[in-house]
Amino acid sequence: MKFAVIGGTGLIGSQVVRNLNDAGHEAVPHSQSTGVDVITGQGLDEAVAGAEVVVNLTNSPTFDEASPAFFQTSMDNLLAAARKGGAGHFVILSIVGVDQVPELDYYRAKALQETVLAAGPIPYSIVRATQFMEFMDAVMSWTADGDTVRLPATPIQPIAAKDVARAVTDVAVGAPLNGIRNIGGPEVFTLDELGRTTLSHRGDSRTVVTDPTAGMFAVVKGDVLTDKEAHLAPTRYSDWLS
Q1: 110 with 60: CB under 8 angstroms?
Q2: Best exposed site among 10, 54, 104, 229 by fewest CB in 10 Å?
Q3: What mean pLDDT value characterizes the chain?
Q4: H helices within 155-230, ranges in order?
Q5: Which of 181, 177, 187 minimizes the C-alpha distance to 167?
Q6: pLDDT in tens, 51-73
């Protein structure tokens, strides 16, 4: 099969491309670095022409109030190009619980992306993943101050990027779901607990202070970012740290 992977040079996209090609398919990565711009439309028609499946793994350059416009415009452009090119399956990567946190601009933007896809002209699949293990350093950096890292006790279910890429690959080669598949890591932690585990493993002497007002995840209510009924990935956080 022929795949066009938009955002195919990033953390997840590069692994999806490799997985697909290793399995004998033809997967071509596209991004701004290859001359494809999902906002202006530059290079899009050429990128998706003849692809049976379009996998969109692009991401907004910001997490703020500008992100909904990014996803609206990029999806409109991609869907138009994919339809013109004859694609029969369109796949995106989203977030578990994305429609349950309207307080976050970025989550509203990703929910909008899902809505645009579902209303579009092409059979589709949405893969919703829990938070990536690879993002833990960024999460801690948002609220780090000297010897202290402040984190809320928000429940999360971290998943390794390689497991996300494998799940996206599996969905992309299958029949369109015309719906959502949730994937998550095998364990649930509170965010502050995960911070302590991470720093301890690295011999980092900083202290994690539980602060219900700290950082982006402070507005999350309950355990909406977890799903114990999701398709569970194999990689445990302790193994990923090692």
Answers
A1: no
A2: 229
A3: 97
A4: 161-173, 191-201
A5: 181
A6: 999 999 999 998 899 999 999 99
